[in-house]
Amino acid sequence: MKRFITLFVFIILNSSPRFIYIQQVETGQFAILNSQSLRPIRDNVGFCWNANEMNSFMNYLSKNSGSQNFSSKNLIGAISVHDDYLYAGKVYYPLYKLIRTKEVVIFGVTHGTVKKEMGNLSNVLILDNFDKWQGPYGDVGISPLREFIKSKLPKEDYIVSNKAHTIEHSIEALIPFLQYYNRDIKITPIMVTQMPFERMDSVSTKLSQIITKYIHKNKLELGKDIFFLISNDADHYGEDFSNSPYGMDAKAHKLATDNDRRILHTFLDGTIGPASIESLTKEIWASDNKDKIIPLWCGRYPIVFGLLTISNIAEQMKAGSLHAKLFKYSDTFTEKVLPVKNTSMGITAVFSYKHWCGWFTDGIYLK
After folding, report:
1. Do 92 and 201 share a domain, yes or no?
2. Are both 18 and 137 inside the same structural domain?
3. Res 25: pLDDT
């Protein structure tokens, strides 16, 4: 009779935690039976990773976020805030209660923290290789779409980097809200780097064709089975961001938030198409026009790339045109810190006229 000894080992491999089950047979040799990599949490202060706390937080938001409701009919995508929950919880809330799909494609930012450690990444998408991501209600599975994309998208259009996804926080921020409403949610995390519009249009066209094939192959329905989320925070204002064109007082705060709202109502609160998406770049991408004030939106590249991709998918599926609806806009100085009790959550930066951030949630509908 063979004797088996099973060990559970936790190791760090390529900057990723990996759980390995090892079985020893009577010969004394060990064999690896199973291995899974789990993406570690990046921000355990601003976001909520405890199920009971998340339940309590959502209960607070349901009672304190106002009565305005939005339709989930024909909702296939959205732009989401990714800032601290104690600042932006009321801006997250009206969106996520509408999402009930089996899987979500998330277009995330490539923040400066990633570039600082990995160099100036550009002109590519960044995929990961993790088996699961952590969530407050258990580990979150990866959609088969991710590997389908890797098998179809030209190699020059993407890289695979667990390190980049470990450093970046703009995708993980959305997971607790998604998982609260669907414990079995699966995600396809995609970080978007800086690239010219022509390059972005080309890569998004190829990606949309791949996703459309996946949708047809698996008989999925937009908005019912698969959803698209774009992660973004609006203007990052103040001396900490080297961004204070209006000054740093109450008047400057009003001018900057008014500019955010103007952009939103002009480009993200009505019909969306290729022309309007390209025009949006002139409002949120840096330009040679030194006289034009450009707000510092951290998701300026994911927004454009994500909208192009969603628009292409809708066109390829003959599903209709896109229409955007602004759910809520606010900022750290206006909201201040939510008075949530008995929580381990905190804030990652103190707000003032010298340091504040705007954010919004915006629904993308088929029309």
Report:
1. yes
2. no
3. 34
| Residue 5 pLDDT greater than 80, yes or no | no
Task: Specify whether the CB–CB gap between 165 and 126 falls below 8 A.
Answer: yes
Same domain for 105 and 214: yes
What value does the CA radius of gyration of the chain take, rounded to a whole number of Å? 21
Q: How confident is the model at residue 36 (pLDDT cuts 50, 70, 90)?
A: low
**Strand-strand pairing, 158-160 and 132-133:** unpaired
Residue 61 DSSP SS3: helix
CATH number for the domain harbouring residue 137: 3.40.830.10
For the chain, how many structural domains are there in total? 2
Average confidence score pLDDT of the chain: 92
Q: Position of tokens 């970046």?
A: 168
pLDDT of residue 254: 98
Residue written as tokens 């504040």? Answer: 356
Residue 175's closest CA among 281, 49, 71?
A: 49
- The answer on 250 and 337 residing in a single domain is yes
Q: Which two tokens stand for residue 318?
A: 């003959």
Distances (CA, A) of 236 to 163, 229, 256: 25, 21, 10
Q: The domain containing residue 67 runs over which residues?
A: 41-366
* Cβ atoms of residues 173 and 233 within 8 Å: no
Q: Which helix (H) or strand (E) holds 179?
A: helix 175-181
State how far Cα 69 lies from the chain centre. 22
Q: Which residue has the tokens 């519009």?
A: 197
Q: Whole-angstrom Cα distance, residue 58 to residue 213?
A: 36
The string of pLDDT tens digits covering residues 108-155 is: 999 999 999 999 899 999 999 999 999 999 999 999 999 999 999 999
For residue 288, name the pLDDT band (cuts at 50, 70, 90).
confident
Which string of b and e fits 274-294 if b means at least 16 CB within 10 Å? Answer: eebbeebbebbeeeeeeeeeb
**Are 78 and 178 contained in the same domain?**
yes
**C-alpha to C-alpha distance for 224 and 102, rounded to whole angstroms:** 8
